[in-house]
Amino acid sequence: MILTTEALGKSFDGLRANNDINFTLKKNRVHALIGPNGAGKTTFVSMLIGRLEPTDGAIWFDGKNVTEMPAHRRVAQGMGYTFQITSVFARLSCHENVALAARRRLGRNRAAVDEAVARALGRVGLGERAEEVAGDLSYGHQRLLEIAMGLASMPRLLILDEPTQGLAESEIAAFKALIRELSSETTILLIEHNMSVVMELADEITVLNFGEILAHGTAAEIHANPAVQAAYLGTETADAED
Ligand SMILES: Nc1ncnc2c1ncn2[C@@H]1O[C@H](COP(=O)(O)OP(=O)(O)OP(=O)(O)O)[C@@H](O)[C@H]1O
């Protein structure tokens, strides 16, 4: 187990966005978190990474209770993540973008940072483009650059929030191949709307609905689960098209 939550909950002024979430993440797996819009996925991962404070419950990462640990210390402990909204600095080069992320873990050790940047950019296929300005990259490449930023801190857990949103089909195929490669060296938590990506990549799937865990299982189990099918009725079109 690399991460566990115990009865994790979050309320926003009376709205219960997450309720009683008991979640476990096994090492070196690809675990997908799915659910209809507004189900509470972003709220949940925001608590995992330390951007939002839980209202109740606890989070354990690699045997440590990190519930109250600031975000930057969680990164230093081995959590890496990318956000739903592109967060690259458009006027900085690819190298500089990834170096900013690498320094969060490696400090000012220039040689170590340079090495980590080269490795991370190489991993996502942007090794040749290190000196290009990030804003000149295509949208798909900017999303890969973000994954490189997440990888730069050499995370033991990489959390990806809707990484394929806005990607073309060919880019999604390349993304799937990348995740398969990365899954041999790190644990991946994938928040994803694209069901073909989820069904192909995920070893395990957790379904959130109205802020609670509705189901958990393999792709085949989730696919066949009547409660999951019911939760997606009515939102099916939106989710299938994402
Ligand atoms: N900062 C906030 N203040 C108030 N309500 C919030 C806040 N953040 C989220 N919510 C509410 O909490 C609920 C869960 O939202 P959340 O963004 O976690 O869902 P989601 O599953 O990530 O949705 P999506 O798939 O659309 O990204 C929603 O009703 C949302 O409006």
Structure write-up:
- The chain is an alpha/beta fold.
- It is built from 10 helices and 10 strands.
- The protein has helices spanning 41-49, 71-77, 94-106, 110-123, 139-151, 169-182, 195-201, 219-224, 226-232, 236-241, and strands at residues 3-12, 15-25, 30-34, 56-61, 64-65, 79-82, 157-161, 187-191, 204-209, 212-217.
- The protein has a 6-stranded mixed sheet with strand order 6-7-8-3-9-10, sandwiched between helices. It has a 4-stranded antiparallel sheet with strand order 2-1-4-5, covered by helices on one side.
- Strand 1 (3-12) and strand 2 (15-25) form a beta hairpin.
- The radius of gyration is 18 Å and the shape is globular.
- The protein binds adenosine-5'-triphosphate.
- Adenosine-5'-triphosphate (ATP) binds next to strand 2 and helix 1.
- Adenosine-5'-triphosphate (ATP) binds at residues 12, 15, 17, 35, 37-43.
Outline:
With 242 residues, the chain is an alpha/beta fold. It has two domains: 1-78 and 156-242, Rossmann fold (3-Layer(aba) Sandwich); 84-154, no CATH class. The protein has helices spanning 41-49, 71-77, 94-106, 110-123, 139-151, 169-182, 195-201, 219-224, 226-232, 236-241; strands spanning 3-12, 15-25, 30-34, 56-61, 64-65, 79-82, 157-161, 187-191, 204-209, 212-217.
